[in-house]
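B., you asked whether I could sanity-check this one before it goes into the benchmark set. Here's the sequence:
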Amino acid sequence: MIKRILLTAALALTLVGSADAQTKGPNGGIVVKADDHPIELVLRGQEIVFYVSDHDGKPFATKGVQARAVVQNKGKATNVTLAPAEPNMFVGKLTAVIGSKARIVFSARMHDHTLQARFVTD
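And here's what the prediction gave me:
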């Protein structure tokens, strides 16, 4: 099962030619839209944080929602389990500080659909 998840994640990262259209977010991170949900990636040392908003840009409650990130940094892919945090965040711990040009894929199952956002760090 884990091998299948890692293989799927590696394939997803391989298929990512470039990130979705990225803009600067209100928390100083990178924002992309996934199914009309703005998702902001913020890196703080070895902490990774995703802020999720609803279609109208209002905070989306993450309580009870499962999410994960796949990080491809310096040629190594890592799965990061994300924990929901109030009011609209997912937080995870990284094994190393992420460098420039790292690729990150965020995935979450929210209500009746799956969100997936792709990022490339500066």
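One thing to flag: The two ends are 33 Å apart (CA to CA). Otherwise nothing jumped out at me.
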